[in-house]
Amino acid sequence: MSQLEIKNLHVSIENKEILKGLSLTVNQGEIHAIMGPNGTGKSTLAYTLMGHPNYMVTEGEIIFKGKNLLELEPDERSRAGIFLAFQYPVAIPGVTVANFLRSALNARRRALNPEDKGLPILEFRKMLKEKMDMLKMDHAFAGRYLNDGFSGGEKKRAEILQMAALKPEIAILDETDSGLDIDALRVVSEGVNALSGPDLGVVVITHYQRLLNYIKPQFVHIMMHGRIVESGGPDLALHLEESGYDWVREKYEEVPEV
Amino acid sequence: MQEKPKVTVTRTRRDSAAKDFSFTANSIPAGGLKDVRAKAWDAFTKFTMPITTDEAWRRTDLRFLPASDFKIPQEGAFNDLPVVPDYLLKPLTGEQHGGQITLLPGGSRVDLDPALVSKGVIFTDIRTAERDHAELLNKIIGQVVKPEDGKFAALASALAGNGVLLYVPKNVKVETPLHSVLWGPGTDLAHFSHLIVYVDDGASVTYVHEAASPNETGHAMHAGIVEIHVGEDASLRFVELQSWGRHVWNFSHERAHVEHGGNIDWIFGAVGSRLTKNFSDLDLAGEGAQGRMSGFYFTDGTQHLDHDTQQNHLAPHTTSDLLFKGALKGKSRSVWQGMIYVAPGAQKTDGYQANRNLVLDEGARADSIPGLEILADDVRCTHGATVGKLEKEPLFYLKSRGIPQADAERLVVEGFFDPIMQRIPFEGVRERFQQAIQDKLSA
Q1: Hey, is the C-beta of A78 within 8 angstroms of any chain B C-beta?
Q2: How far apart are CA B437 and CA B360, in angstroms?
Q3: B407 vs A78: CB contact, 8 Å cut-off?
């Protein structure tokens, strides 16, 4: 069983500390939700896990399957089994969804065997169609340029499509619900639920409780000021829905620096 | 006490202009174009070497061109030089060639399907054309590109012993593509070429021309002319690729003249040479004439490629569509300077030009200069020019899916060129460009 263990993580961006000692353990097969108001470092955590070059880890460690994740490049992390569904997926003009996914899958095969000739095209097309059907996507989607001119819902669906194709062990969904109408939210959530199971650990990062009506976490964490300040079960999310974040803010208000 | 030695510093001035060529009127090849060549030589002697204060040459400096060193290859010189590689002789369009010409230093080889010969199609090297088709050749040569167009046009016009005459008679549709290769190995040599393409009214043809040489140390040069006539309701697809060696100074003057209802689909691919200055003009001379120009270039090292394009709308209801896209590495430089000209009375014309550049390294530089000169009042002309860098976020996104850095860069660059690939109807040409991208990125 794969385990992602984050210990006392401190992360700065442009010399400003955003994460201030965050610890969290996620196992394959578990669904965790990280909730918190804007600006508490949720997306910083997501980008840091994936290895974005702008985020500097100043202290702490991230261990994945017994290996130090921080020593790996983003592509190596992906091939090791980490996946990030971006809040703002990036457009790659001129590169089709199919071409991109095939390159990603072939990169995995070549990392295992440099002589690999690549995934046979028919096998790839069959797989891609199955996954697109699962996400109720038009097959023509495969021929469009990646995220280029996509609507908000299409972008999020494309993220889940990638997750389905790449079969990660730990997936981080960064505000996957933002910008989605209720139908798109349902399709995306159903996709995530279809993929989750004993082989997939999921970390759902969200500001709102509504996504958790569709994706049911076993563990809920509240983030504040760059740390996880409360952890509990699904009832914690419901409590937030009823009472908002104010009680958390009051409880964990930082003493202003003098 | 010892006296301090006296040091005198004298400044030496570098000549501001390059040395000029050492060719003489004796260099003019004998044959059926004697008068044409003599006139071109006259024009040549009146030109001085272009300098950077000449408007067209502002961004391309010839001071280091060792002009006086260049010699014209002797008859049969190719026998002692590297041979043309097989890949250049393979078909790039369709299954097989209807004809193929290999132009070599001091020689050539010609092959044409007898079925095309019987239809009156002429596809031959210029020396043979001078001998066998002198009357036709004299009638059409120098009508589209004139020696007066520039020093290198005059030079090539006077001295070109290599060249192609392609003549497609009225209403003849050539189904199989024609192919020519100009192979220019050797150093201290000047290669000259003159391509004359005449597609008569109602005729159609696809023609691919490649110019190439190996990388060698030292210098070599090429000066070429491409003159194209597309008759009424005629159609030409013309692909030209250059992969000259890194030691080659490459100059060309090209112009297509398109008559009423005629159509040209013109594709350029440029990855080679030390320095290139290319003038490519599209003259839409007859009502309803159409032209599309698609350019692909990729520079690296210290290469310098300068493309100067003109879309001249000289008649009403004419349409032009130009897209040039280039990527740059190392300390290389590209220049694209384009002009859409709409003549008085050329109403209802539709002109488009766009140049997009992707600068992959800090030291590379792309200049992109669009221009419009519109003397009619009911027209639609649009243009765009961009110079961009390889952005970090797309690369991170691709890497986050397991794609290594080098492959991620290649994907972004291929994606950048995709709009050009979409305009190329030939798988073989697209593959050649993809190979060039791969080679340049891994160089």
Answers
A1: yes
A2: 12
A3: no
The chain B residue lying nearest A85, using CA atoms, is B400
Rounded (10°) angle between helices B405-421 and B427-442 = 150
Q: Which sequence spans correspond to the domains of chain A?
A: 1-88+169-185+201-258, 90-149
Mean pLDDT score of chain B: 94
Range list of H helices, B18-103: 34-46
Query: Does the pLDDT value for residue B10 go beyond 80?
Result: no
Range 47-76 of A in CB contact (< 8 A) with B: 50-53, 73-75
B338 in any annotated domain: no
Q: Are the C-beta atoms of B127 and B31 separated by less than 8 Å?
A: yes
| pLDDT given at position B1 | 47
Q: Is residue B378 part of a domain?
A: no
Tens-digit pLDDT profile for residues B171-196: 999 999 999 999 999 999 999 999 99
Q: Does A43 touch chain B (CB under 8 A)?
A: no
In angstroms, the CA A59 to CA A216 distance is 32
Q: B297, B324 in Cβ contact below 8 A?
A: yes
DSSP 8-state symbol, B53: T
* Dist CA A112 CA A107 (whole Å): 9
Q: How far apart are CA B413 and CA B355, in angstroms?
A: 15
Chain A residue closest in CA terms to B411: A95
In chain B, % of residues over pLDDT 90: 90
B75 vs A83, residue with greater confidence: A83
Query: Alpha helices of B58-213 — where are they, by DSSP H?
Result: 114-118, 126-132, 134-140, 151-159
Contact at CB, B416 and A145, closer than 8 angstroms: no
Total number of domains constituting chain B: 1
ipTM for the complex shown: 0.96
Distance in Å, alpha carbon of A50 to nearest chain B alpha carbon: 7
Closest approach of B397 to chain A, Cα-based (Å): 7
Helical H segments across chain A, by residue range? 42-50, 74-80, 97-112, 121-134, 152-166, 182-195, 234-243, 246-252
Does the distance separating the beta carbons of B407 and A89 come in below 8 Å? no
Q: Which domain holds residue B212?
A: 31-286
Helix (H), strand (E) at residue A55: strand A55-64
Both tokens of residue B336?
Answer: 């694209």
What is the 3-class SS of A218-248, one letter each residue? Answer: CEEEEEECCEEEEEECHHHHHHHHHHCCHHH
At B9, the pLDDT band (50, 70, 90 cuts) reads: low
Residue B233 has pLDDT above 50, yes or no: yes
Contact criterion met (CB below 8 Å) for A84 and A46: yes
- pLDDT values of chain A reduced to their tens digit, one per residue, 258 residues: 789 999 999 999 999 999 999 999 999 999 999 999 888 999 999 999 999 999 999 999 999 999 999 999 999 999 999 999 999 999 999 999 999 999 999 999 999 999 999 999 999 999 999 999 988 899 999 999 999 999 998 999 999 999 999 999 999 999 988 888 888 888 889 989 999 999 999 999 998 888 888 999 999 999 999 999 999 999 998 888 888 888 888 888 765 544
**β-strands B365-369, B333-342 pairing:** parallel
Considering only CB atoms, which chain A residues are within 8 Å of B415?
92-95, 145
Asked, for residue B437, whether it belongs to a domain, the answer is: no
If one counts every other C-beta atom within 10 angstroms of the C-beta of residue B73, the result is 23
Question: Domain A1-88+169-185+201-258's class?
Answer: alpha beta
In a domain, B146, yes or no: yes
Q: Does A84 touch chain B if contact means CB atoms closer than 8 Å?
A: yes
